[in-house]
Design goal:
By secondary structure, this protein is α+β, with helices and mostly antiparallel strands. It is 56% helix and 6% strand. Its cofactor is heme.
Length: 434
Amino acid sequence: MSVSAFSPARFPGSISGFLQVVSLLSLLLLLFKAAHFYLCRQWLLKAFQQFPCAPSHWLLGHKVRKKDELQQTLKWVKEFPSAYPRWFWGSEAHLIIYDPDYMKVILGRSGYGLLLLNGPTWFQHRRMLTPAFHYDILKPYVEIMANSVRVMLDKWEKLISQDASMEIFQPVSLMTLDSIMKCAFSYQGSVQLDWKSRPYLQAIEEMNNMFFSRVRNMFHQNDTIYSLSSNGQRCKRATQIAHHHTDQIIKQRKAQLKDDKELENIRKKRHLDFLDILLFARTENGSSLSDEDLRAEVDTFMFEGHDTTASGICWTLYALATHPSHQQRCREEVQNLLGDKGSITWEHLDQMSYTTMCIKEALRLYPPVPSVGRELSKPVTFPDGKSLPKGINVILSFHGLHHNPKVWPNPETQPLIPALLRRTKVRCPVLVIW
């Protein structure tokens, strides 16, 4: 009597053989990963051999708590000249750069959006969007921004009357989002007075948190594994919300431009708003921007136009709050300038010299964009002769640069002294709000 292939008598052998195959494949995969880890680590060690750094664990890298990140960076900036390798784990390391001459080499070399674009595409979009920031366009925006600030302050007045402390980043973010929506995207409503934009702000905050969380987790570097994790799912939902917000802004403006009266208003304008420039733009071959390019540019300016500006404003208020004498002098300068007018104008901006210096010094101490990452597409050689091969990731640390003793004398103990900004030989770039 023959035995069927599906007979229970044959199951133990089949299962055993299957387990053996799985075990063999798992062992091969483990050996492959171990070899890959070893080769990557050896390549990075060789690439970074000219750059000293603090001791790190061979697998876990430099173990730094999230809350100690910036302070540890400043400690290493003092200890290591120009740059140092930061090991996130055994086979992942970036070179942290905070020397202006090193940065010049990286930034002088020619993702999506102007923030991330490369080569010809970057130049094309830069040339296309430059008119959106002409002084004649920015002048009327001052009144729009002042009105947005007034809405925020009116809401604060009610809270102040309750004699309660408050966290200001969210209301400031709403104010800056309100401003950028009206100035750059022809938005007619008020972001601060309705709740439609709250999910977008929460999504941006979630994406920021998820990004830094992912960078620190070696198991989340694989896109497939990350997409299956709870953090990956949260990041996906936040991204969808952010993209939906952007798509709605573009869709709404496209619908408005179908109206003949709106088109007539556009023709009367000497300069177009940011979004209108994108919608009317034509590439070198005569075609309009793709939906992907449109979303990329709008995403970039929607995010950078409100989030980093809100961060800069909040840190400036913090710096002034911790230095009451400078705060009082700024207040007196603004009050003397405005008098009974009560609202700032374009002409006032050049007359607030002391306040401007305090803002710039606060942005030096607390840069809203503390760092920017780049992957080298070609080998580089720095002015001191040190070099890096193609494929290395570098992080341009503006926070480290702004606290670099080679650039700023006594950078951390110098308490908000605007006179520091009068130095003519300072090589440090200054971030300007709008």
